[in-house]
Amino acid sequence: MARLVQPPPKYTPEEWHASNHLQYFNAERERAAAERLRDESFRLAHETEVRTTQTQMDVNKKLEQRITDIGFWKSELDQKQEETEDEISTLLQFKARVEKALADTELPLMIAQQCLVNRERRMKVDLVHDNVEMQLQKEVEVIEGVQALLQRTLEQATEQIRLLRSAKYYLDKDRKDKFQANNIDNKCASLENTSAGLRFAKDAVKVEKNSVTPDEWEDFSNKNVLKAEREKNSSINLRSIIDGILMQTLSDLQAQCQAVNLTFQKRIEETVEAKTKLEKHLAQVMEEIAAMEQNIEMLKRAIADKEAPMKVSQTRLENRTFRPNVELCRDRVQYRLIEEVFEISTNIERLREKLADAEASLKGLIRKQLSLEEDIEVKANSLFIDRDQCMELRKQINHVPH
Prior knowledge:
It comes from Pocillopora meandrina. One of its GO terms (cellular component) is axoneme. It is found in: Cytoplasm, Cytoskeleton, Cilium axoneme; Cytoplasm, Cytoskeleton, Flagellum axoneme. This is Tektin. The radius of gyration is 52 Å and the shape is flat. Helix 2 runs antiparallel to helix 4 (131-190), helix 3 (106-119) packs across helix 4 (131-190) and helix 4 runs antiparallel to helix 5. It is 81% helix and 0% strand. It contains 7 helices and no strands. The protein starts with 12 loop residues before the first helix and ends in an 8-residue tail after the last helix. It is mainly alpha-helical. The model has no long low-confidence stretch (mean pLDDT 87).
C-alpha cells in the first residue's frame, strides 16, 4: 500500500519576516566586522613597517656602541703584566691567619654544644628554656656563623690567589677573542637590507648556553684589561676585608662568650637563692609538721576525754528509766540529760572533723616536705651542672687576635 507524502511544513508570515530580519542583521554584522578588520590590517601594516625600521636603526646604533666597547677593551688588553708574586705571597700569609682563626673556633663550639648537652640533664622544672640556654644557642649560632664566614673568606682568598696566577694567561686569550668578535660585529654593522648573501638562519634567536650577560662580559674583560694591577688591587681589598672580618669576628665571639658567662653567673645566683629559700621553707614545713602532729595528738585526747562524760550521761538516762509509776516523769533533769548527750555527740563529731582536717593537713605538709626536698635536689643538680661542669669547661675558652 502506497504511503501518503507529507507536505513540507509551512511558516507563518511573522516567521517569514523574522527570518528576513535575521539575515539582514547577520549580513550587516559580518560586513561591519570585515570593514573593521581591513582598517586594523592597514594600521598594523603601517605600524610594523615603522617599528621594523626603528628597531633596525636601534640595532645599528647598538652594534656601533658594541664595536666601540670592544675596541676600548682591546686597547686596554695590551698593558700591565707585573707585580703579582709579592701580592700572592702576602695573600698566602693572610690565608694562613684565616685558617688559624677558623681552627680556633672548634674548641669554643664544642664547649658551647657540650654545655647544652649537660644542661639537658637538668631535672623537672629546672629543665627550662632559660636565658642561659638561649645565650648558649646564640653562641653556637654565632660561632657557626663565624665559621661559615671564615670558610667563605678562605675560599675567596684561594680564588683570588688563583686569579692572580692566571691573569697573564687570560690576557692573550681575551685579546684574540676581542679581535675575532670585533671583525664579526664590523661585518654585521656593514649589512643592509640590500646586501648580498642575506639568508634566513635556523634558530637565529636561540640563546647559546655558554652566553654571558653584558655585565659578566665587562667584568671578565675588566679583569683582563687591568691584568695584574687589577688583581693586585682586588687582593689588597680582600686583605683589608680579611683584617676587618678577623677583628669583627673576634669582637663578636668575645662579646657572646662574655654574655654567656654573665648569664650563667646570674642563673647560678638565682639557683642558689632559690635553693636557699626552698631550704628555709623546708625548715618551716618541718616545724609545722611537728606542730601538726602535736595538734593531732591533742585532738585525739580531746575526743577520748569526751567518752567518760558521755558514759555518765547515758548511764544516768538509763538508770532513770527504772523510776516507778508516776515517778517516770519527763522532768527538767530528763530534758537536760538528753541535751547533754546530743551536745557531747556534737562536740565529738566536731572534734573528729577537725582531726580529719588536721590529718589531711599533715599529709599535705608531708607531701610538701617531699616536694621541697625533691626540688632542693633538683636545684643542687642544676648548680652542679651550671657551676661545676659548664663554667669549668668554659674556662678553656680564650678568643685571641689572629
